[in-house]
Fold this sequence. Notes:
Blueprint: H1 2-7, H2 12-37, H3 41-50, H4 52-62, H5 67-91, H6 96-119, H7 131-134, H8 142-161, H9 163-171, H10 173-178, H11 183-201, H12 210-222, H13 228-252, H14 258-276, H15 282-309, E1 319-320, H16 332-340, E2 344-347, E3 350-353, H17 355-371
Antiparallel strand pairs: 1-3, 2-3
Amino acid sequence: xxxxxxxxxxxxxxxxxxxxxxxxxxxxxxxxxxxxxxxxxxxxxxxxxxxxxxxxxxxxxxxxxxxxxxxxxxxxxxxxxxxxxxxxxxxxxxxxxxxxxxxxxxxxxxxxxxxxxxxxxxxxxxxxxxxxxxxxxxxxxxxxxxxxxxxxxxxxxxxxxxxxxxxxxxxxxxxxxxxxxxxxxxxxxxxxxxxxxxxxxxxxxxxxxxxxxxxxxxxxxxxxxxxxxxxxxxxxxxxxxxxxxxxxxxxxxxxxxxxxxxxxxxxxxxxxxxxxxxxxxxxxxxxxxxxxxxxxxxxxxxxxxxxxxxxxxxxxxxxxxxxxxxxxxxxxxxxxxxxxxxxxxxxxxxxxxxxxxxxxxxxxxxxxxxxx
Length: 372
C-alpha cells in the first residue's frame, strides 16, 4: 500500500485509474443519495442490467469496440429500461419492485443472449466485451477520466441550479405540484443523471456490481446526518475514498479485480457507519439502551425507597439496607449510584432518603399521574 501511494504521482497509468475511480465513486455517491431517499434502491441494479443489451447491440451495429459508442448504446438501453419501469408502475397495478425485477431480468437475459451470439461471430474485436459484466478499471484511459470529470461537473451544476426543486420534490412531491414546479421534468432530470452515472461506471465496476457503488456511499452517509446537503457531500467523499482505497488495495496485490475490491471497501464504510455513527449507530444505540435500562432500575429503586420513607415524618429516618433485598431492581451498585447522585445517604448498614431524593421521587409520581 505504501508503494502504491509512492508510485501514484509518478506512474501515469496508476494515476489515471485512481483519479477515474475516485471521480466515479464521488458522482455515484452523490446521485445515489437521491435514489436512496426516493426509496428506489433497486433502480441502480435494474438500470445497470438494462444497459447490457445496449452495449451488445452497439457492437453488433458498428462492429467495433469503441468505448464511446458502446457507452452510448448502454445509455439508450438504460433510458429505455427506466421508461418501461415508469410505464409499468404508472399504467398497471404492479408495484415498483415488481417492475424493477421484470425489467432487470428481461434486459439482462436479452443482453446475455446477444453476448453469446457475438462470441460465436468471426470478429476479433469481440474479445473483452465481457469486461462490462464485472468491470475492468485497468482499461480506463485519460479520455474516459476526462468524460467522468465533465459529467460530474455538469451534474453538480444541475444539482445546484435546481437544488430547491430537487429538495422539495424529494420530501413532498404533492406540495411541489401545488407551488407550480414541473415535477415530471425534475423527476426525468434526476433519473437521467443517475442513468448516466451508472452507464459511465459499467466499464470500471461492471453490470453486476454497479448498484453497490451507487448505493453504498449514500447508505453510509445517511447514517451520519439528517441534512440533504451534508448527506450528498458525505456520500461523494465516501464514494471517492472507496475508489481510491479500492484501487490501492487491488494494485498492491496480485490477481485482485479492482471493481469488486472497490465495492468491498464501500461496504466496509457502510458497516462502520452502521455500527459507529453517533445518532443511528448500532453500538451507541445499544449503549443508550443499557444506560436507559440502568436508569429505569435506579428510578424503581428510588420509588421503593420513597414509599418506605414517606411513612415517617422525618424522611431522613434511617432504614436497614436488608429491607431492599427482596426488591428486584435493587443491587449494591445501584445503591452506590443513588448515593453518588445525592438521592440517598448511607451510614454503615443503613440508608436514608435525602430531600433531593424525596423530591425527585415525588416528581416521578406526579409525572406518572399526569400521563395516566
